[in-house]
UniProtKB/TrEMBL annotation:
This is N-methylhydantoinase B. Residues 496-511 have a biased composition (Gly residues). Residues 496-523 are annotated as: Disordered. Residues 6-514 form the Hydantoinase B/oxoprolinase domain. One of its GO terms (biological process) is glutathione metabolic process. Pfam families: Hydantoinase_B (PF02538). One of its GO terms (molecular function) is 5-oxoprolinase (ATP-hydrolyzing) activity.
Length: 544
């Protein structure tokens, strides 16, 4: 039996593990080449123990956990661990073979050795803006599928593997430089973990890690036990410009003592579109819901996952099977978060927000008129966060499982042949309520000196983000095209030289009766052009 570790040492080691993954994430951002990673910060980092259990995750993109879990399970379950060497690095992105949750998220996984013994794994993920201008009927159309394979063996780059990957990328110069950033982050993680092991010893480090998993489990169980026992269900229609029909989504949540179960029976079958989620993406979504509703200081490790049960029919849109396309799985994931919150509003109304927006994705690509190289500009636009208990929702932000930033106008225009003509909050887009929902944004981008292929659209074009407690829904998303630009077909089309397209994202739902909103707050919203004079009078009842 391992000797116990005192609580103070456990706490210090836990903080050190969290610091390692946060530093890894910052290293990717500082060293990255593409704007999508260095500006939008669309990346994540994690540590795993020798059994593939996550022991620390950086506070970056919650949905990325699905990809990180997938590659760890796959490598540890299918690889002869006795043959693993220091400097081996696995790369993967395939949603159906354990490498990711969509093909743009490429994961790097590397073992950590101390005195010839495998003691842990470091991993990181970055979203690569590549594989654009493709179909989404099935995953074979979405880009290169990379099962978890070695990119490095004993520290030696496998050039033929890299050549194969880069040959299938549309912007290989960006990819190879971003790969170097990911490699640097993993090497940093290896060094930091080895230094921690040298300070405390591997035995103490492993025992402290086990204690941290047990601690996270206890905190999670205590948080669940504070929720009234019962079955809480919610159903809602969902729309997106990627699919012609409404999709009717459902969730049922059962709380029994200190355990919670999420049942996704009754959801639609997987579609011939990129909306499908693999099971690891569903896991990441559910873990986000529980983490945000319970004690947020609970460590984000595998112990936190133990009291949570998830079931979903195989072959459904939330547990898709090969060859389902998965590019836009975040659209469904975001709506499921809102639905879980809505279901639990009966039990814990003071903790859940009104519904929030999804993300509208704008991708422009073509030949850069100055460099002659192919370029890709890809950005997912945030919108309005739902009103919270006692607070307005946040304006113009990514919400829930995506949590990335934007690409600053200056950075975008200096790198790509585009001009940003508008970047603004949209009046009346925040759902009215005693507490107003967050506002959506408008971002209009013009093609300069070339014809660009465009993919533009997302959810909440028909079904808005709903309010709570009498609050009204947020504004709808829409696409705006300049004169001379043909209507998009399933989000895809062409922007001629000088033409523009705009993403208008949806707003968050409001909370409470709008006529109970503080009169000074209504006047301030009117003064700041957040609401129109008509809305102030007819919805909020402002008389002066």
């Amino acid at each position: 039996m391992n000797a116990p570790v005192d609580p103070i040492t456990v706490e210090v080691i836990g903080s050190a593990l969290s610091t390692i993954v946060e530093e890894m994430g910052k290293a990717i951002i500082r060293a990255a080449y593409s704007a999508n990673i260095k500006e939008r910060r669309d990346c994540s980092a994690a540590l795993f123990d020798t059994e593939g259990r996550i022991i620390a995750q950086a506070e970056q993109i919650p949905l990325h956990l699905g990809s990180l879990l997938g590659i760890a399970d796959r490598v540890l379950g299918s690889t002869d661990l006795a043959a693993i060497q220091p400097g081996d690095v696995f790369i993967g992105n395939d949603a159906h073979t354990g490498g990711g949750t969509h093909l743009n998220d490429i994961v790097f996984l590397e073992p950590v050795f101390v005195q010839a013994a495998l003691v842990a794994w470091v991993a990181n993920l970055a979203h690569h803006s590549d594989f654009v201008d493709r179909g989404h009927a099935h995953i074979f159309q979405e880009g290169l599928r990379i099962p978890p394979i070695r990119l490095y063996r004993a520290g030696v780059l496998q050039q033929d593997v890299l050549d194969l990957v880069l040959l299938n990328c549309q912007v290989p110069r960006e990819r190879v430089n971003d790969f170097r950033a990911q490699m640097a982050a993993n090497r940093l993680g290896v060094q930091r973990y080895q230094a921690l092991a040298a300070r405390y010893g591997v035995a103490v480090l492993h025992q402290a890690t086990r204690d941290l998993l047990d601690y996270a489990e206890r905190k999670t169980r205590a948080g669940i036990a504070a929720i009234p026992d019962g079955r809480y269900a919610f159903q809602a229609p969902f729309d997106t410009s990627l699919w012609p029909d409404l999709l009717h989504l459902a969730v049922a949540i059962e709380v029994a003592g200190d355990e919670i179960r999420f049942d996704f029976a009754g959801n639609p079958a997987q579609t011939r579109s990129g909306l499908n989620m693999v099971f690891t993406a569903l896991q990441a979504t559910v873990y986000y819901v529980v983490k945000t509703l319970l004690d947020q200081d609970t460590p984000a490790n595998a112990g936190f996952h133990r009291p949570i049960r998830i079931s979903a029919p195989a072959g459904s849109i939330v547990n898709a099977l090969p060859p389902a396309a998965v590019y836009s799985r975040h659209d469904v994931a975001q709506r499921l978060v809102d639905m879980c919150f809505a279901a639990l509003a009966e039990a814990i109304p003071d903790r859940v927000p009104a519904a929030s927006t999804g993300v509208t994705v704008l991708t422009m690509s073509g030949t850069h008129p100055r460099t002659g190289r192919y370029y890709v500009y890809n950005e997912s636009m945030g919108g309005g966060f739902g009103a919270r208990a006692g607070q307005d929702g946040m304006d113009g932000v990514h919400v829930h499982t995506t949590n990335s930033a934007n690409i600053p106008v200056e950075a975008l225009e200096s790198e790509q042949p585009v001009m940003v003509e508008a970047y603004e909050l949209v009046r009346d887009s925040g759902g009215p309520g005693r507490f107003r929902g967050g506002m959506g944004i408008r971002r209009r981008v013009r093609a300069v000196g070339h014809e660009a292929t465009v993919n533009l659209g997302g959810p909440c074009n028909i079904v808005p983000a709903w309010g709570l407690e009498g609050g009204l829904p947020g504004g709808l998303a829409r696409v705006e095209l300049s004169a001379g630009v043909a209507a998009l077909k399933r989000r895809d089309g062409l922007i001629p030289d000088g033409g523009s397209g705009a993403a208008v994202t949806s707003g968050g739902g409001g909370r409470g009766d709008p006529r109970l909103r503080d009169r000074d707050a209504v006047r301030r919203d009117l003064r700041e052009d957040r609401i129109s004079a008509e809305a102030a009078r007819s919805i909020y009842g402002l008389e002066d």
